[in-house]
Please model this.
Amino acid sequence: MNRLHNLDYVRGVGAFIVMICHYLIWTYGEFNSSDHLIRFGLYGVAVFFILSGLTLYHVYEKNFSFNRLAIVLFIKKRILRIFPLLWLATFLSILISGKKVNLLSDFFLNLSGLFGFIKWDTYYATGAWSIGNELVFYSFFPILLFLLKKCIPLFFTISVLLFVVFIFFSYNVLDSSVTLTSQWKNYINPLNQSFYFLCGIIIGRIFKHKELRSIYSVLLILIGTITILLLPVKGDLIHLVTGTNRLVFTISSILLCVGFYKLKLKFPNLINKTLTLIGESSYSIYLLHPIIFDLIKQNFKLPLSIRLISTVLTTLILSVLIYQYFEKYLIKKSV
Model:
């Protein structure tokens, strides 16, 4: 009943763009910061973090009682939603890559989800770093929600601190004269991403019980989209995630999320069902698309364009099936 279908659309489109970006890079080579698609792919993950905080606030704002039973149920839901597919992607990634596994440290950290807290750059499934970040955010969500309800000044203080950390990473920790690839460990540090999750909670707090005319929602979406497309940035991808550019792209991402959150536009039934299904399957698309790419590349010798198209279609079909017969089953078990 609390599901936000408009945000499903955003998740689905975001996961699809991230998949296409990866497939194009792995097929044709690296992109740079002036390429429009890569901008949406890079900030698509930031949007996921914002939507995560927003969705949790929207669902739990009224009903979270902060007792032991409520916290246990929250943890159970997060475990059944996140871990089974993460485990599957981790096992398959190790199997396909043939990497040596350190059972006593890295492998255990991946299976337990603790890698997000301790060694966030130690992950086997491509993209799993963001899942490690999410697990960190989930662990603090009940505390943030409690403070938002019971102690606004302390919540405000924490918000300011997280923003300061965000600025510190953007202007000091991440060096705009060095490539993003060489600074990847710093970029995927949960402290560098936590402000996005916080923004989602704040959006929920401000807008959950407020109406916004559709024209204003559309305007916010257009402003965010056009800014991401047209902001003049060149060179390595590091320029998209440092300095003033990062602030502008972050504000644009927030505007997109607010716009879609309050949008009351009703799509035709076929489009609505398609976008909703892709959105519901976005977690599978996000985690499994690198595995499917590697499997097809290793086992089928196809022209690049044919391989690209077949990989996209295979990913979408398998992700929908996995959501319907694996993820959905576990979601029901968590209720």
Summary: The radius of gyration is 20 Å. Residues 95 and 104 are 18 Å apart (CA to CA).
